[in-house]
Amino acid sequence: MVDSNGVNSECCHGPGYATPLDAMKNGKREKLLYTVTVQPNLNEPHGDYLSTVDVDPDSPTFCQIIHRTFTNRLGNELHHSGWNTCSSCYHTEETNTDLVPKRDKLILPALNSDFIYVLDVATDPRKPEIVKTIDGSVLKSHNVTAPHTAHCLANGNIMISTMGDTEGNAKGDFVLFDANFNCLGTWIKGESKPYCGYDFWYQPYFDVMVSSEWGAPKKFKRGWSDDDLTDLTQYGCRINFFKWSTQTLYQTIDLGMEGVTPLEIRFTHNPKRAEGFVGCALNANVYYFKKKSNSDEFDCRKVIDVPSKLVQAGNGRPREMGGLISDILLSLDDRFLYINLWRHGDLRQYDITDPENPKLTGQVFLGGSLCNDLTDVKVVEDLELKERPNPCYIKGRRLEGGPQMMQLSLDGKRLYVSSSLYSPWDKMFYPKMVEKGGHICLIDVDIVNGGMKLNENFLVDFGKEPYGATLPHEMRYPGGDCTSDIWLAD
């Protein structure tokens, strides 16, 4: 039996792999890529959708979108997704298979409408179907809005982080649903709550969960401008630690200006390592956190600092341009950390064998705001590069935008990269990407020596979609992936 949070690992059977290394060694190669796709035309009635992309190199439809599951609703802004079941409940042959939970539902929360869509991905994995729609009023009835990250729990429940209250003010919390997607209320107990919310990850072996902060929904939904730099009070700068068993906030670490907008947060995949990383968007820093010995509290320190560049656009005055780290990812063996720099345009791989001293082992440029063919941009000062990067072309198509969401194959050899961050921000920073459509590209990874190389034969183009150019964001595989599965310790 397990308690309400799945702390007791007696429940050790499910659809995934026994350990992260088991998944890396024995996991099947991905053949489908479920991609959250946003419709930037807010008047297009089909709205946002889930794209099913064929990534099987032996398939006649390789690199093509083979199905679209439309929400048929305006104003959603689908963003992240999650599974109803993951490797926190691992299946063995000794188990009564009738009782084994199945990873057959993909959950799609909508940032702007507060709706949640539940998709059946098992009946026909190539053609997912919406089987339940949870109205935005359900979240509002609990005074939470802007749902973001969804994780399954070992007891069969699903937990989704939220970022605001019903008025769009900053409010960090989590909302629970049972296996049939009935709302059970909010998760946090007690009066202490984070200033705001975003991502989260749990490690029950250490009785801990960690969450990050983006900002007040009514602020970030307006988009971003340089004027926001003069007032960052509506954006987060903290990471928050909770007692998993009591569902209470017990430690908050303020990262200050260097850590404004900490977004994606990851514990290491090994469930017996109480350590992890968080990427802070605005100033392009990565912080490493680790549990103190003989204490439940964590230490935290900056381990990657990507310098801002002094950039002049048109006839304006030079301004600092941060890299904007909006996604980070760990390989299943916890050897490599990947970060994106959406504004600067590059993707980086770090060896984190020594996690307090990451070593840069790979770098690929995939567009960005600094390419040398942008005639209205002048780089006044760059502490890293002697020359501006070339624009990136794949199959004759110039990549607009920068590297955004990432998903790594289980074996660590293939890194898929999409281009859209959040459509109001896309429209401000990369209007050409919005006009021409986003893309997914593929990076081949050297898992022995480290290093990355652009695969010039792979491109998924969202520029010629049935109802106009669209914007691809987060990606997942039917069999689980490197950013959704959380393992329980034996």
UniProtKB/TrEMBL annotation:
Keyword Cell cycle: no
This protein's record includes keyword Membrane: no
Coiled coil: none
Alphabetic keyword roster: Selenium
GO molecular function list: selenium binding
Sequence similarity: Belongs to the selenium-binding protein family.
Name of the protein this chain belongs to: Methanethiol oxidase
